[in-house]
Design a protein that fits this description.
The complex is a heterotrimer of chains A (287), B (268) and C (274).
Chain A (H helix, E strand, L loop, with lengths): L1 E11 L7 E12 L3 E5 L6 H7 L8 E6 L2 E2 L4 H10 E4 L12 H11 L4 H14 L4 H4 L9 H13 L5 E5 L7 H18 L2 E5 L3 H7 L2 E6 L2 E7 H6 L1 H6 L6 H11 L11 H15 L3
Parallel strand pairs in A: 3-8, 3-9, 6-7, 7-8
Antiparallel strand pairs in A: 1-2, 1-4, 4-5, 9-10
Chain B lengths: L1 H5 L11 H4 L2 H17 L7 H14 L3 H8 L3 H14 L4 E5 L2 E4 H27 L2 H12 L9 H31 L9 H32 L18 H23 L1
Antiparallel strand pairs in B: 1-2
Chain C lengths: L1 E12 L2 E13 L4 E5 L6 H8 L7 E9 L4 E4 L6 E4 L12 H11 L4 H14 L15 H13 L5 E5 L7 H18 L2 E5 L3 H5 L3 E6 L2 E6 L1 H5 L2 H6 L6 H10 L11 H11 L1
Parallel strand pairs in C: 3-8, 3-9, 6-7, 7-8
Antiparallel strand pairs in C: 1-2, 1-4, 4-5, 9-10
Helix pairs in contact in C: 2-3, 2-4, 4-5
């Protein structure tokens, strides 16, 4: 099973003098169970793309296919697709409205007609997934939490429904650095445990290098690259042309090569880089 | 974007025509006077002077007619409803009848008259808001209210509050769209089902909107204070007001048109 | 120079008085760049508002030193002496156009019309905002909005500019542009800058870093000194740059290996090593 986009165009104000192609000829394939990054500079079409994945927008031309379902403006199809694809928008805590965290997280489950027991079970499971103790938190008001806790509750309120695909638009924006890593690590754990697909839209290249094995790069509404993250970041010209920056580990590895250092490092992620550096140092026979 | 785009009434259409450049206070006073004129008139024909002035204003402003048409759209339903009610339910000489449904001569005349009245009122206000920037308009309101500050009406503050409200309308509309997208993605069905269900489906939109608006208000108050604003302190004005010859023309034109209407009604 | 002398600040809550900041001593020289860092809730924003004169300390003094020889001091006036730029670009623009927003603070200063027009023109030109002068704020990008906020503050000609997490809601491109603007203003106009942030790049541009932890000053030192002290890094919950972590790793083998804060610096140091 997978999400596929086939030659998708999206045009704002189609036919009017100011018509504007937000997406042009996008063809994509996202496998079930993958952790995929979607990157691109501001205005490259990331948000428009995301809104196509659960039928908030419909392609002007082309098809968006979730599993075997072609997304269309049909109530039944939409209900089915939205049950499968969950979207965590930017600053998702701005959507809070309920009196208790329990009610907030249960909102989605109730909309999809879960039984009382199913709601209870889903809410508890979602809270544990995001690392918040249900017994302590569920009766509190979502408005009295810290920023990091609010973000986690907001993510729990999406994943409680148990979708197969979860799209997150800048899930770590505005969080302190500790919470940033923790939130993504929790999603990775969830993915490994349940085989859910995680689609991460991010401006933070360190994050993308650390967590996403595959990456989709958008530039001016078109796909500029689709494939292994490592391949993309190794192509410095492409990274620059698409207006992105290198992750810190790649920058460091490049700087080492540029000055002909005898140290070699694995650049794929921060932790792997530090480990390989340790090995490289002992190979050199440092004191 | 759909919501923020359809918001036309009260929108500015920047330009450099003499209508744009003339004083906001003058335009505001003229608009109010013209509106009084519209209400004073009792016969459709009496609108002629006002229509002449309005058409001249629209042409000179060089604002596309499309823009005025869009301004009429929100009140289209109101127009149709009143016209239909007047047409079918005014007693008088029947000129057309099917079963118990009938149209009277008087009804037709009255419907045409009310149609003119509503359209004129709308077009006059669209011309004002389209040719005047919100800040000029609020300054003008403040000027108009100024005499009342002697009896304790905070005219400057009222103007500032109006301008802040206008500044935040598009921002809050965008915010509303954002919240709707988020709740729909959580499976919310907005505006579906029975009336009670529809009302209930608005709660997950309205509460986040209130919360964020209060936060905005809080942030904004601090930001204004950080820029030296104190409630009640005197402030100078960035927009200078100077009386131009065009202003005299507009005032004279309006005065002539409205006196024409009044004289017509009194003596003809 | 702004001088903070034994500044404490407490707020009254239903649960009693809460000490937000305790005995903070700082000196911010004219034209300097400083950073304020620390975990959420450590009092960063409160400190920024105390420095700007927006809040008054419960005890201690925040003063602007006018003349070093005669020790003439005055209270800091918000806007006039210190300009503040806040986190959310949408919630600090007041007027319906860029130009009018810049004029807002000047109207509060009760400047003459001619003076206002002059100052608005000057900052529009300085920040390259002329093409946007008639734009309503909601038509601007986040970075442009923050530039307008900076322009509005700058028109009041303060001697210090405080950015309270002003780039945290922006994407990297806009963030870089705003920071470059601020650094240029510091360089060209000699305006003092205080950056409240949790972003590493922004800490590294400062000559001194104020690390807050639980309302007290844990450190007031250069970025290099702050990052080389593990105790301070831990108390301030700072994230070390990758290059610094790599440097520590190398220091286990070569004790005199320097602490490097950027990849380029690190590469250069390793080349000298081998």
């Amino acid at each position: 099973m997978s999400i596929d986009l086939k030659n998708v165009d999206y045009v704002y104000d189609s036919g009017e003098p100011f018509e504007y192609f937000a997406l042009r000829g996008i063809s994509l394939h996202i496998d079930e169970g993958a952790f995929v990054g979607v990157v691109g500079r501001t205005g490259s079409g990331k948000s428009t793309l995301v809104e196509h994945l659960n039928g908030l927008l419909f392609p002007t031309r082309g098809d968006v296919v979730v599993d075997d379902e072609i997304i269309s403006n049909d109530r039944k199809v939409l209900a089915k697709v939205r049950r499968r694809v969950g979207i965590v928008f930017q600053y998702p805590e701005d959507q809070f409205f309920a009196e208790t965290i329990f009610e907030e997280v249960a909102f989605g489950c109730r909309n999809y007609g879960f039984s009382k027991e199913q709601v209870d079970e889903s809410v508890h499971r979602a809270m544990k997934t995001v690392g918040l103790d249900p017994d302590h938190f569920l009766s509190l008001s979502p408005f009295q939490l810290s920023g990091g806790e609010q973000r986690r509750v907001a993510i729990a309120s999406i994943i409680a429904v148990g979708q197969k695909y979860i799209v997150l638009d800048e899930p770590t924006a505005g969080l302190d650095s500790g919470s940033k890593l923790a939130v993504l690590a929790e999603l990775e754990t969830l993915r490994q445990a349940t085989h859910v697909t995680v689609i991460l839209v991010s401006h933070n290249m360190d994050e993308v290098a650390e967590f996403c094995k595959q990456v989709i790069v958008l530039d001016d509404g078109a796909v500029a690259f689709q494939g292994p993250t490592d391949t993309f970041f190794s192509d410095v010209t492409l990274v620059e042309r698409t207006g992105l920056e290198l992750p810190e580990s790649y920058r460091l590895s490049r700087a080492l090569k540029a000055c002909g250092s005898a140290l070699t490092v694995n650049e794929a992620s921060t932790e792997r880089m530090l480990e390989s550096l340790k090995l490289s140092v002992s190979d050199l026979g440092g004191a | 974007m759909a919501l923020s785009r359809s918001f036309v009434l009260g929108q500015h259409y920047p330009g450099t025509s003499i209508v744009h450049r003339s004083g906001a206070l003058v335009k505001l006073v003229s608009t109010i006077t013209l509106m009084i004129g519209v209400f004073v008139a009792t016969k459709t024909a009496q609108y002629v002077p006002i229509v002449v002035l309005l058409v001249a204003g629209i042409l000179v402003s060089r604002i596309p007619l499309r823009f005025f048409a869009r301004g009429l759209k929100p009140i289209l339903f109101l127009i149709v409803l009143t016209v239909v009610v007047q047409m079918f339910f005014t007693p008088g000489k029947i000129i057309w009848q099917v079963g118990f449904v009938h149209i009277t001569r008087e009804g037709l005349v009255l419907a045409g008259f009310i149609l003119c009245r509503l359209v004129l009122l709308t077009l006059v206000s669209v011309l004002l808001t389209a040719s005047t920037s919100p800040i000029e308009l609020t300054d003008a309101v403040s000027d108009l209210l100024k005499p009342l500050s002697h009896i304790g009406v905070p005219s400057a503050e009222i103007a500032l509050v109006m301008s802040i409200a206008m500044r935040f309308v598009p921002t809050i509309l965008e915010e509303t769209e954002r919240i709707i997208r988020a709740q729909v993605s959580r499976g919310a069905r907005i505006g579906e089902g029975s009336l009670v269900m529809r009302m209930k489906s608005l709660i997950p939109i309205l509460i986040p909107l209130f919360v964020s608006s209060f936060r905005r208000a809080d942030d904004l108050a601090v930001a204004m204070e950080a820029r030296g604003f104190r409630v009640g302190d005197p402030r100078t004005r960035y927009h200078a007001r100077h009386f131009q010859s065009i202003d005299v023309f507009i005032l004279l034109g309006t005065a002539a048109a409205v006196s024409g209407v009044i004289l017509w009604r009194l003596f003809l | 120079m702004i001088r903070l002398d034994k500044v404490s600040y407490q707020i009254e809550t239903s649960a009693g008085a809460v000490q937000v900041l305790r005995d903070i001593d700082l000196e911010l020289p004219d034209g300097s760049i400083s950073a304020i860092v620390g975990p959420n809730g450590s009092g960063k924003t409160t400190l920024a508002r105390l420095v700007s004169g927006l809040l008054r300390p419960t005890s201690g003094n925040v003063q602007l030193l006018l003349d070093a020889e005669t020790h003439t001091v005055t209270d800091v006036r918000p806007g006039v002496d210190v300009g503040l730029v806040f986190q959310n670009p949408d919630n600090q623009l007041v007027a319906t156009t860029v130009e009018d927003d810049i004029a807002f603070g000047l109207e509060n200063l009760q400047l003459s019309h001619g003076e206002m027009v002059q100052r608005v023109e000057d900052v529009l030109r300085l920040l390259g905002l002329q093409p946007f002068r008639d734009y309503p704020p909601h038509r601007l990008s986040g970075g442009q909005k923050q530039k307008v906020a900076i322009a509005g503050v700058l028109a009041m000609k303060p001697s210090f500019l405080i950015l309270d997490e002003a780039t945290s809601l922006l994407d990297p491109t806009n963030r870089r542009e705003v920071m470059q603007t601020v650094l240029r203003l510091n360089h060209e106009l000699g305006i003092g800058v205080v950056i409240v942030t949790h972003l590493l790049d922004e800490v590294l541009v400062a000559s001194r870093v104020c690390v807050l932890a639980d309302g007290v000053l844990a450190a007031w030192d250069s970025p290099r000194a702050v990052f080389s002290n593990p105790a301070i890094v831990k108390r301030g919950e700072l994230v070390l740059p990758l290059s610094a972590r790599a440097s520590f790793l190398l220091q286990e083998h070569w004790t005199d290996f320097p602490l490097c804060l950027t990849p380029e610096e690190f590469a250069r140091a390793t080349c000298q090593l081998t």
